[in-house]
Amino acid sequence: MKKIYLILTVLLVSSIMLNAGPSNRYITEHSCSKAKSAILRKGCTISEKLIDRGLSQAANFWTSADGSQDEFIDFCTKNFCKNLEEKDRLFERLCTNFETILGHNNRVTIELLRPSHVKGIESTPVDDIFGAYNGLAHFNEDMFNNKLAFIVIMNFPHFTLREKVNNGDNWTIRQWGYVRLGDLFTNRAPASAEQSINAATAAAENYIANYNIHMGMVWSDKNIRYWSQDVKLITHWGLRDELKAAYSDPVSGTDKQSIIYNILTRITDQTIAEDVIDKSDYIWYPSTNQTYVQRVEIKGKSENNKRYECLLRNFRAIKASDEYYEEDNFITRKFEGEYEISVEQAEKLFRELLSSPQVKEVAEFISKRLGRRLHPFDIWYDGFKARSSMDQNKLDSITTSKYPDAEAFAKDLPNILVKLGFTRPRAEFICNHVTVDPSVGAGHAWESMMKGDNSMLRTRIGANGMDYKGYNIGIHEFGHNVEQTISLYEVDNYFMRGVPNTGFTEALAFTFQNRDLELLGLTNNDTITDDLNTLDIFWNCYEIMGVSLVDIKTWQWMYAHPKANAEQLRNAVLSIAKEVWNQYYAPIFKEKDQVILACYSHIIVDPLYVSAYPIGHLVDFQLEQYLDGKKIGPEVERIFAMGHLTPDIWLQRAVGQKLSTEPLLTATSKAIEDVANYDKQIKKEKKEVKVTKKKKSK
Ligand SMILES: [Zn+2]
Asked: From the CA of 146, how far away is ligand 1's center (Å)?
């Protein structure tokens, strides 16, 4: 998913590049109006407003190397469509040809990556080189050089997010297609700008990829070592997941959690000693930060802001490319261009949930369940995950015998769709466009980008068949494949394919995944499963929305202080993290000035990506709530055939409401009540059993 999304981002991020800027661009106003007169003289019936917009946007990109003023006027006169019929004919041809280019190149990438993605293919020394090859690396440049980009821009100009949001509801799907085509060539950044961003990202990725903590060398302040020598945990994912897993350890869970919390804090504030990162030479007490070799204390050198140097390098590379875009900065590009939600709207949604009264209610409930006061690390409380009452071994044996290999799973996919309410012919059609492979990694769904090609469903399938985990992930990925197929085949035109942003495809994947037991013919006896799911989503949002705010504020600070050094950046990030913590978390956890919200590795390697998670959670929740009790098949076919609208228009048409925290907040209040009643009931039943037992023993 990730990789393919990158290609799309490069092509579709909506921004207008100002090669020279309207004020100092090469093409003059006079040339633009001469071109317009010539076009009108030719008998063009397209609205003058659209002619002005198309010419002015094309003029912004045209340099002297592309031709003289007269050549610009000639080019526009020749290539501007005369009427709507001509325009639609051009649009159709562009749909066909871009589908050919993007679709086949996507297939090339899938095939070149096959040895590293699919199990059972012997590796050769050339695999990595082919895997890194990108046939579309110079696509943008080529399209400007052969002037195809100019033909697209003048006939299908770009519209801003505000224009899409304000007018999009009145556009036909064909007009929407024109507008999406107008998102295709919106910057002419030189390859060197792209390269320096890639180099900065690669350096940050490399820094985080090697950031392991050898847990066998970590001791508690009570001199206990909880982990064996072979346990290595990567920041922050591995450490956080271990912290979450410790909720199921009633004896030393809390102690382990506070150790991991200290580690994450020291990584974030950079007091961690360099010698405990990815090394096992020193015994480390994270609470006091003392390090020892053979019982002798060694004062290790701290990491010295390396973490923030990576972030700074990312910022500088990205900022250097700002001049090629119309939007003033990367924050606007990421939010308005990619998520199609303004940063203000995202912040408003996040702050709404963070300051909702439900936070306190859920926190009190967690504290009651844990039987202790809350600690700051309880932002990662994991006890709402509805654990299946089914025995894991039994589940494994069911799925391995049902799905001994990829073919068996592929053969059953149409039946799965029929169970979800799709008609048999529609189920067969969709599944004929999905290919199942056993995966090397955890699994993924790789979309097809042209009709006639298949999307790829990859999940783990062992020698003995597909275990329950492989099946569970397989069903999630299948949800992606179903979205990918419907939103490619059933949309009006090629440029409308897809969904508003990643959150929307994840929403369908989770809708499928949540029904995995039901699809095996098993029912979960737990009456409060849905309520627990709601509380889990709510608590996840509460945690990640704080992280997202820190990420956003950090980028705003960097733009306000472009000359800052790594030390100043570190201090700023820590004070932003504390500020967000003190506002929304300290009143709940009764501890001030925590920096933990800045511990996410995404903040360093994947700028402003974290916000995609809470947006996805909200979409997922709204979709699930709408589908509850309905036949999924026909609804999914209707909803995902709408294609790439903006998030609010899509949601309004899909589920009848815009992107909102309200459904989740309402459901959370109800869930707290239900689960509290359920817990009371269980307690009462246990008491009664005890009393009966006592009576019997007397
Ligand atoms: Zn997914």
From this structure: 37
What phi and psi, each to the nearest 5 degrees, are found at residue 135? -60, -20
Euclidean distance between CA atoms 462 and 442, whole angstroms: 12
Task: Name the percent of the chain lying above pLDDT 70.
Answer: 94
Are both 86 and 229 inside the same structural domain?
A: no
pLDDT at 3: 33
Q: Are residues 256 and 169 in the same domain?
A: no
Domain boundary among 286, 307, 328: 307
Ligand 1 center to residue 531 CA distance, Å? 22
Specify the DSSP element, H or E, that contains 684.
Answer: helix 662-697
Q: How far is the CA of 117 from the centre of ligand 1 (A)?
A: 16
Does residue 9 have a pLDDT over 50? no
Q: Is 13 exposed, middle or buried (0-12, 13-18, 19+ CB in 10 A)?
A: middle
- Of the candidates 149, 264, 541, the one whose C-alpha atom is nearest the C-alpha of residue 379 is 541
Q: What is the distance between the alpha carbons of residues 219 and 287, in angstroms, rounded to a whole number?
A: 9
3-state secondary structure of 459: strand
pLDDT at 23 over 80: no
Helix (H) or strand (E) holding 444: strand 443-446
Which residue do the tokens 């090339």 mark?
108
Q: For residue 457, what are the β-bridge partners?
A: 436, 445
In the numeric block, the tokens 């250097």 are attached to: 320
Residue 628 lies in a domain: no
What's the CA-to-centroid distance between 447 and ligand 1, angstroms? 12
Which of 307, 340, 369 terminates a domain? The answer is: 307
Please give the pLDDT value at position 692. 63
Read off the pLDDT band of 526 (50, 70, 90).
Answer: low
CA of 5 relative to ligand 1 center, distance in Å: 12
Q: Are 87 and 46 spatial neighbours (Cβ–Cβ below 8 Å)?
A: yes
CA nearest 630: which of 511, 468, 453, 476? 511
Within a domain: residue 679?
no
Query: How remote is the CA of residue 457 from the centroid of ligand 1, in Å?
Result: 11
**Does position 569 have pLDDT exceeding 80, yes or no?**
yes
Question: Which range (61-70, 204-213, 407-416, 679-688) has the least confidence?
Answer: 679-688
Helix (H, G, I), strand (E, B) or coil at 591: coil
216 and 182 co-located in one domain: no
Q: At what angle are helices 647-655 and 502-513 packed, to 10 degrees? A: 30
Tell me the CA–centroid distance for residue 628 and ligand 1, in Å. 20
Q: What is the C-alpha separation between 333 and 319, in angstroms, rounded?
A: 11
- Tell me, yes or no, whether 70 and 151 share the same domain: yes
Residue 226: inside a domain: yes
Centre of ligand 1 to C-alpha 278, Å, is: 30
Specify the length of the chain in residues.
Answer: 698
What's the average model confidence in pLDDT over 618-639? 94
Query: Ligand 1 centre and the CA of 204: distance in Å?
Result: 24
Residue numbers of the domain that contains 221 = 206-307
Question: How far are the Cα atoms of 224, 261, 272, 275 from residue 286, in angstroms, in the given order?
Answer: 12, 9, 8, 13
Overall domain count for the chain: 2
